[in-house]
Amino acid sequence: MPIEVSNLTHTYMKGTTSEVTAISGVSFRIEDGEFVGLIGATGSGKSTLIQHLNGLLRPTSGTVLVDGVDIWSKGVSLKQIRRKIGLVFQYPEQQVFEETVYDDIAFGPRNLGFSQAEVEARVEKACELVGLDKELLPRSPFELSGGQVRRVAIAGILAIQPKVLILDEPTAGLDPKGRMEILDNIKQLHETGMTVILVSHNMDDVARLCERVMVLEKGTLVFDGPAREVFTQREFLYSKQLRPPEVTLLMEKLRQRGWAVRQDVLTVEEAYAEIMKELRKKGVAGAI
User: Which fold has domain 3-228?
Assistant: First the structure.
């Protein structure tokens, strides 16, 4: 189920003295099963852009096609579009509102008119996908930890079984353990064949997970390509108020000191392999 955006522009409060253009002339296509990172400085338009993909915002101009259909054309059901494209907001705690975890996850399937048996099956499956302990289902979501609430919010979207999952800063404010657990859950969801779009300020997270990266600057798309390509362009990233992943910077420092390591390393695992390769050359790996 590809998503195609063509010449998308969105202007808030158009025609007033407070008019602001948040997105300007953006075009791209996302294919089935891709894992795409969307990055950019604060205020670059990331959250505005993703809210167009399932019809939460209507373009001022331009089109959004889902599976070849303009979602704003006559007769198209936005409710059906939102079943296909699930969006987890930047502060998922704001998406949690029911008295129990079970009711929160079940809200979507119930709203779509599924039988009680189907609702229960979807809640159980969603909990499995995000690693949420079923013992938490009777509890209030407001009693849970930050990481658990994120899982509840994601599970609530997964219970409607979307084809595309969009996550806006899903690890913001979490401790390192909670962050890694959520990222591992997201990776596993992608491995099931789900299309994932990850909005994040954390370049290490994007580099670890995403095959393709789009960079927004002041509402325009200034890069769209492989993660390895963008994250090795240090000056470009700095000019967009971004920075390369920490391991990429480490490899750069090692190269400056004469180490023959790759400059396109993006993950800790890749960095470890490169460092060990150099240590073996130097004859010191066995002492580690």
Answer: Rossmann fold (3.40.50)
